[in-house]
Write a structure and sequence with these properties.
This protein is α+β, with helices and mostly antiparallel strands. The chain has helices at 5-8, 12-24, 28-38, 46-53, 57-69, 88-101, 129-142, 154-160, 209-223, 238-246, and strands at residues 44-45, 73-78, 81-86, 120-123, 161-171, 174-183, 193-200, 228-233, 250-261, 264-274. It has two domains: 5-101, Winged helix-like DNA-binding domain superfamily/Winged helix DNA-binding domain (Arc Repressor Mutant, subunit A), CATH 1.10.10.10; 120-280, Gcn5-related N-acetyltransferase (GNAT) (Aminopeptidase), CATH 3.40.630.30. Helix 9 (209-223) links the parallel strand 7 (193-200) and strand 8 (228-233). Helix 3 (28-38) crosses helix 5.
């Protein structure tokens, strides 16, 4: 499904911020200095940098102030010396900016806004599990939704999902879709990371059910302490990819020939969404006086 022009356009505020970053690097000496700093473990003194690039210290200091102004580096006074270190957030922030400008990544909204008026969502209950299982079976039958080839029983589904993060959509008094999140690890450090699934009943596809479910899922995840949502989608499932991008997910990468499905190798697109994705779209990230260049 092609995006409207307004969805593809780069916001003017983002363009201005990225232009400031790129303008800072329009001077070759700053590029050399940033590379030297980024490839030096820990921090480095101004004098050491001057020796590394073969220019005088006052010239190095001038360019370092420019790099610090946009947050590429941090300058820390230690006695009479100034120690310079790369801002680690910018190691991902700068490539992210280039990807957004080149259209590799979409700027990320918080969640879908044009929700269908005739679809409601609510918490899933145990009495929903049979119809949820049937909708899951319909998704498996498409061959484009999951590597699963057999539908798990209701008890397995119930035990798989995180309590408080499973939802159903209703239309005309019937359950027509579901969304749920499951843990990715038992380690405490990953307590806020979950893998998500969204399925829509065969007869209800194309009416915004998935959009309503994703809206409920991501907003409840943000409020409920899940800081990262991740999912894997077959690249052929372009409707699902588009829908997840609208909900603030970004493409992390493609895992090629990750597994066989019905006798052939399949790729998957790995996507993730960080908490409060709406504040992390494009250049709404900061790269200024606090020396931060964060992309979520």
């Amino acid at each position: 499904m092609p995006l409207e022009h307004t969805e593809r356009s780069l916001p003017s505020a983002d363009a201005e911020t990225y232009a400031a970053w790129f303008a800072c690097l329009a001077e070759p000496m700053r590029v050399r200095l940033l590379h030297a700093i980024a490839t030096t473990p820990g921090s480095v003194s101004v004098g050491e940098l001057a020796e590394m690039v073969g220019v005088r210290q006052p010239t190095v200091s001038h360019h370092l102030r420019k790099l610090a102004d946009v947050g590429f580096v941090t300058l820390t006074k230690v006695g009479t010396s100034t120690r310079v270190a790369v801002n680690p957030e910018c190691c991902s922030g700068l490539p992210h900016a280039a990807d957004v400008v080149m259209g590799v990544l979409n700027t990320r909204p918080c969640c879908p806004t044009d929700l269908p008026a005739d679809v409601t969502t609510r918490a899933m209950t145990d009495t929903d599990l049979e119809v949820v299982r049937e909708i899951y079976a319909q998704g498996i039958a498409t061959g484009q939704a999951t590597f699963e080839t057999e539908t798990p029983d209701t008890e397995a589904l119930k035990n798989k999902w995180i309590s408080g993060h499973r939802w159903v959509a209703e239309a005309d008094g019937e359950v027509v879709g579901w969304a749920a999140a499951s843990t990715v690890s038992t380690r405490k450090v990953y307590a806020g990371v979950a893998e998500t699934s969204v399925y829509v009943a065969e007869g209800a596809r194309g009416r915004g059910v998935g959009k309503a479910l994703l809206y409920r899922q991501v907003t409840e995840a943000d409020a409920g302490g899940l800081w990262t949502l991740q999912t894997s989608i077959f690249p052929e499932n372009r409707a699902s990819l588009s829908l997840h991008h609208q909900a603030g997910f970004r493409t992390v990468g493609v895992r090629e020939r990750i597994a066989q499905h019905h006798g052939r190798w399949r790729d998957i697109v790995l996507l993730e969404r960080r908490q409060g994705a709406g504040s992390d779209t494009g250049a709404s990230t900061t790269c200024g006086d606090d020396a931060r260049c964060v992309t979520g």
